[in-house]
Amino acid sequence: MGKIKSLFWVLGMMFLWVSCVQDDDFNVPDISITELEIPQAQITTFKTIKSLYEQAVNNGNSTATIDDDTDLYIEGYVVSSDRTGNFFEELIIQNKKDDSNPDNDPRIGFRVSINVSKLSGTYQFGQKVYVKLNGLTIGEEIGVITIGKGDGVNVKQIQAAEYKDIILRSNEIATITPKVSGLADLTEWDQNTLIRLDNMQLNRFEIGASFASESYDEFDGFRVLESCDSGISIMMQTSTFADFKSLIVPQGQGSVTGIFSRDFGDDFNVLILNSSADINFENSERCDPLELSCGIASTLGAGNLFYEDFESQSNNRPIAGNGWTNYIEAGTEAWEGYSSTSSNASLGRSARFQSASSGDVSNIGWLITPAINLDAQDGETLRFKTSNSLADSSYMEVLYSLDWDGNEANITSAIWGVLSDAYVVKDTDSFVEWFNSGTVDLSCVSGTIYIAFKYTGSGQDSFDGVYELDEISIDFVE
Amino acid sequence: MNRMLPLFLLSVFSMSVYAQKTLIRGSVKDALSFNPLEDVTVTIEETNQYVLTDVLGEFVFHEDVPLGEQVLRISKTGYLTNRYPIVVNEGETVNISDMILEINTAYSADLFVITLSDDELNDDFSGADNISGLLASSLDVFQRTAAFEFSSSFFRMRGLDSNNSSILINGIEMNKTYNGRPQWSNWGGINDVLRNQELSLGLTPSSYTFGGILGSTNINIRASEARPGGRITYSSSNRSYTNRLMATYASGLLKNNWAYTVSLGRRWGNEGYQDATLYDANSFFTSVEKKINDEHSFNVAAIYTPNRRGKSSPNTQEIYDLKDIRYNEYWGWQDGEKRNSRIKEINEPIVMLNHYWNIDSKTTLNTNIAYQFGKMGNSRLDYNGTDLVDGFPQGGGVSSSPAYYQKLPSYYERNFPNDLQYAYLALKDFQNDGQINWNAMYEANMANTQSGGNAIYALYEDRVDDRQLTLNSILKKEINDHVILNSGINYKTLKSENFAQVLDLLGASTYLDVDGFATKIDEAQNDLQNLNRIVSEGDKFKYHYNILANELGGYAQAQFTYNKVDFYVSGSLKSVQYQREGIYQNGGFPDTSLGKGEKLSFTGFGGKGGFTYKLSGKHVFNVNAGYLSRPPSIQNTFSNSRENHNIVPLISEEKIMSTDGSYIFRSSIIKAKLTGYYTKITDASEISFFFADGVGGDNAVFVQEILQGIDKKHIGAELGIEAQVTPTIKLKSAAAFGQFTYDNNPNLYLSTEPDDESIDAGFIHGFKDFGHSNLKNYRLASGSQNAYSVGFEYRDPDFWWVGATANFFANTYIDVSPLTRSSNFSTDFDGNVFNDYDEDLARTLLKQERFNDYMVVNLAGGKSWKIGEYYVGLFVSVNNLLDEVYKTGGFEQGRNANYRELRDDKALNTPVFGPKYWYGRGTTYFLNLNFRF
Question: Is the ipTM of this complex over 0.85?
């Protein structure tokens, strides 16, 4: 038995070693960040960096590169999140937590291009970060100011091996209050910053569509977001790689928060959401306009009630006569006559509305036909042609009213609806061609009708397009 | 060694001389069993003449026999040497029969076996599925060499999978129903009690089972048959575990007719040869027998060997070049410790009750019942945790693999050829770090949790919880001295519960159990009965189903033994039923995932026979032939069992035809065996999983690859030769020449999620038929097809020995991807051949990679001492002494599934999706010290 005793003594010893293997007993590691202490002298403002880039452009360079030798930082807050895949290999960083905008350090945002996906696992929304600018390049990509590496001509991505030494984190996760703005007030300074738009809705033609998984969506899905206050619209841009691409866009009305940016081709403004949850439509009521839709007429009558080809008007003079009401609701510009033989030609003489260089904060102009009595004949139809010249976000509508009394003072208080069957040139259409409206049937209504061509824009770059109008004809079947 | 050669030749010639002179003849038997002992060295001490005993334990001296009083010394490795005085008279024959040898318990050659069965067997970490343990106790020189010397490389006997061999413990088959392979870990670390093994090689008959075409081994753990005594063993190694401690005590049959054996063992280590391959295994064994009377005896045994091991990754050549052959992508630092994300845990206790009944002196009936239960788990990281936003899963992370292709220099070289500094940055980054970043996953999870979300990253485990009951009865009847009948009946029932389980949410507390890749919320559901379920640590998730299996089989055989000839015939019948029972209703397959699926039945049968002709004690001829039809394993029956009931199309029993013939030569000096074999397997099926790029045009999908109707041909020869050139020096050599090929163009199907991407890629309900895969004449990836070994052993009479071998491996091939050998390779999305398809280039691209041939030198030695009543044994081995760097196996990645993808990838200096390889270990050691009483 002595043998057996010693055997078990040894066994006892043996199992004392059991704890030797470091296996599955791991605790949550300490992941707190050692707060950086960067001397104030090494921190510069976003404005300085933006100016540096603008200087470079003025000197004929496409990018500006920061000196590699002296430590230089900017301090900002992450306002983008690629968690849902709507941002990809980029961080949007702005210098303010809210909409404050002091003159010496105005509210600005930059896009930082990094060849790493799912950055949100490292850089949270609202996290304060320092960007170590040494050797980095400032330039423009997809129409917005972008920081990255560079080769003197282009901005290139910061690589996976180096980004953690460039974008340095603070422990501070700030609450970011977006700037609440009207669409018309957004400027280039708002690019790469977090914006909240109130009283918005998806345009009625977008209802039922997904964010970005329709057959016509390539790379990005664009959905028209429009303001119930001003009627102005902006494209909501969603990546076809976003997790919420297949969700159906919400129907109601309310606020939308996102990054104000440009589309990939730098052709128009867009709002990019961090998540589908950034749409907060608490109001189920929509603000769609009254619509008139008798359809497209199958026959065009031989009788004519009203015709205008603007040949008798004068260039650069407000349209007048022939029963027109030319009303300036806002700003200093009106519908005017013009002619051009360039590639962007007029049809002889035509009418146009041009808000560029108006200096106005807002330009709204109405060109209204004389009253048409729809009860005196049958088969009334409307035809016209439209064209544009770089519409930007400005837009033109064709409206009707059955209750306006013809008095300019009452235009805005009358009820105006949309002639939804009429084709009006779109922002995305070519500027060269003139587009036929189609033969818009008016015969399903009765009473006296006014047709209005309404322009909305401003003197600001982002909103100062030109719309052209010609060959308006109201016919009937004799 | 060269000096020995003339002597060796001389011996061969002298044997053919025969003279009518004075003779000494006799025989040697084992002191305990009274079985004849072969290979005993019998030496006449005065003259140092010696001979070896033959199969019947007999020997004869007929040359220059000295006269008068002589002493015969009989010795054999592992036995205590005995001396017998004799008197030799001229012209007479001294006949000294039944001399006995007693086992020297201090001196065991089975030390080798220990190192093997722990370390290399069933090692799915190295891609090798080694069957060598089956052979380790073989007396056949070729088999033993294969077990000892070839096993550290990837070598398969005759190129065959280990599911062609049966492992039994006390007559109960231990092969897993899931894949037909023995799960060696289930009895690891209790080597001391597994010494009683009975081996049947190849088709040769076993008394316990019909067996597979590679043979069968019955491990006898009866307490009454264990060698009495105690033993404590300590081992140290740098191969897989660092330390091993084992203690065993066997009582032998006590006076009160009880016998018991207990064994305890522990193997542990933080790191084996590969980085962060932890090893944590405990072993408990007990066996108790009560002999009721001469007819009846009962034995109860329990085996419990829980073990956890850290896995290591196969890597591309690019990675090996940047790091080294110890590199393992599965681990990262956490709290100053190496944490491996892929742990394999096996914890499947076995209990059994055996009844032994000696019906009469010629008839025994052995009835057994065994129950095995427990769990098997393989952990891994999930990086696709999402949050439910607006009713849809949003979020997810990035691959946490540090060797993910988008992190490697090759990716940058391919995608940014004009900005090679990116590749350089990636290279430096990978070399300086290149491991999992656990902290980053914690950060991401904790940040997302703070904003009300779930875990993005999670550590989870794929679990298989088997409960299996086996009942069998084995009857053995000796009709007369020449005829033995064996038969058995066997019933097995298995419930295998399969699911994934959350292990660690890495700083988060919840995880959204949906498939984040799906584009529709219904399809995203892992279980439609629990929509958008939130799970936490310890919960089951992802998939959950049972596989129910029943197996009923029997066999019968007759063995005939005569002076000149032996022969046998054997037949078996087996019926199996499989059924899947879904517990989750998968969103992708709402109608074919929940509840019980179709009941599948397969019937297998087998017949074999063999014939041995003993021309003389020196020359023996043996032929065997067999035909088996065997049911497919569960693994190869269900095509996507995690998600649905679907089965492999046209699934049927696998047919195996096998035949071999051997010539055995035994003289007092030389023993040799030459075998030729031919095996043909038809109608096999195989299922594998991977992510495929370039399926149906340029689409990328995660797929199950189903290869059905595979024919394989295994043809080759084996040679083993041993020469006892002096009583102390033995030369040995073995060679295996094989050619293992696909013998037809099997059908290829892919199965995947029925989502938009798979529809784009031409899948219908997540299934696509790719027609034939042109695999005929490609080599099977079954390790080195040719292997040779030469070596020697010196055994000093003073109880020490040393040996060395040089082993050469050749014709090792990569596992080819069937998808790239299908029509998918050459055709575009519309089924037309790519317009830039170049057949010559295609042929070059599809050429099977053959690895470099290599040589491994192994050294081993040992010594034993007797100290008082105790024995101490020391054994040391050094493998791969020259630190040769070599590939043992590898596979082509399933990405680059078509001509354009593969062409563009291979055109690079470093391909992005190059094959992944396993490398053999560099120089390693193993040291074993044991103490016996």
Answer: no
